[in-house]
Amino acid sequence: MCGRFTLYADLPVVARFVQAPEPEFDWTPRYNIAPTQPILACRPNSQRDARELVRLRWGLVPHWAADLSAGVKAINARAETVADKPSFRAAFKARRCVIPPSGFYEWQKVGKAKQPYFIHPRAGELFAFAGLWEVWTKGGSPVESCTIITTTANDATWHPHERMPVILEPPHFAAWLDPLTPPPILHELLRPCPASRIAFHAVAPLVGNVRNDGPELRAPAADLFTA
C-alpha cells in the first residue's frame, strides 16, 4: 500500500513534469502527507482539451457515500480489482488522474519492530502515481477526493513491502488521462515499474507521527534489520 508520501518539488517543476499550466494557488513543500490531507493531482480540464493541476482530498469518497469517512478506507485501490470494485469502478472508467510525489514511505515489519523506508526516484525529481478522482456532493459543498492505485512490488520495493503504487512514465500520461482509452490499454499500465527506477533507504521513526513534516524525515538513518 501507500500510506504516506512527499511532494517537495517547486510548483513550476511539478507543472512542467505533468505538462499542465502552473496553478494560481500555492503549494508548501510537504514531507509527510497523510490520508485525508490535500494533495496535488493532474487531470484533464473541464473542456478536456488540456490538463490542470488541482488539490484533492486523499482518500476517495464515492458519490453515493453517506459521509466523508468512507475515504479513510479508500486511500489506495488495488490494480487487480479497481475496474470492478463499487467504490472505484465509475472513476476508473472516466475520472483518472496523475498524482506527482517526490517519494513515498513504506514500513517493513519484523516481529514487533517497524522500520520505515523512504522510496524515491533513482534519477529525476518526481514519480507519477496512477490515481482516480471523484466528486462527493452530499455535504455543504462539493468535495473532490482521490485514491492511489497499487500493484505488486518490484524487486526494489519488495524489501520493505509486498505492494507499491503504480508509477507511470510521462509518455503514458496521455493514455491514462484520456477517458476514451480502452480498458485493455489501461490495465497494461497497471504494473510495477522497473526496479532500476527506484532507490530507497531507511529513515528514522519520526515519519510515523503526522505532526512531523520536515526534510529531516527523508534523511538516511540506521536500518534496524541490517547487520
Strand-pairing-aware structural class: mainly beta
Strand content: 25-35%
Q: What is the H-and-E element order?
A: EHEEEEHEEEEEEHHE
The mean pLDDT is 95
Shape: globular
Write down the domain tally: 1
Tell me the total number of β-strands: 12
The end-to-end distance, rounded to whole angstroms, is: 27 Å
Note the total helix count: 4
Write the CATH homologous superfamily: SOS response associated peptidase-like
Low-confidence segments: none
Largest sheet: 7 strands, mixed
Name the CATH architecture. Alpha-Beta Complex
* CATH C-level class: Alpha Beta
Radius of gyration: 17 Å
Helix content: 10-25%
What does this entry look like structurally?
With 227 residues, the protein is mainly β. It has a single domain (4-218), classed as hypothetical protein yedk fold. The protein has four helices and twelve strands; from the N terminus they run βαββββαββββββααβ. The chain has helices at residues 11-18, 89-94, 173-177, 183-189; strands at 4-7, 30-33, 38-44, 51-58, 76-78, 96-99, 103-110, 113-121, 129-136, 143-152, 163-165, 198-202. Strands 3, 4, 5, 6, 9, 10 and 11 form a seven-stranded mixed beta sheet that branches. β3 and β4 form a beta hairpin. The chain is globular and about 50 Å long.
How would you summarize the topology of this molecule?
Elements: E1 4-7, H1 11-18, E2 30-33, E3 38-44, E4 51-58, E5 76-78, H2 89-94, E6 96-99, E7 103-110, E8 113-121, E9 129-136, E10 143-152, E11 163-165, H3 173-177, H4 183-189, E12 198-202
Parallel strand pairs: 4-10, 5-10
Antiparallel strand pairs: 1-2, 1-7, 3-4, 6-9, 7-8, 8-12, 9-10, 10-11
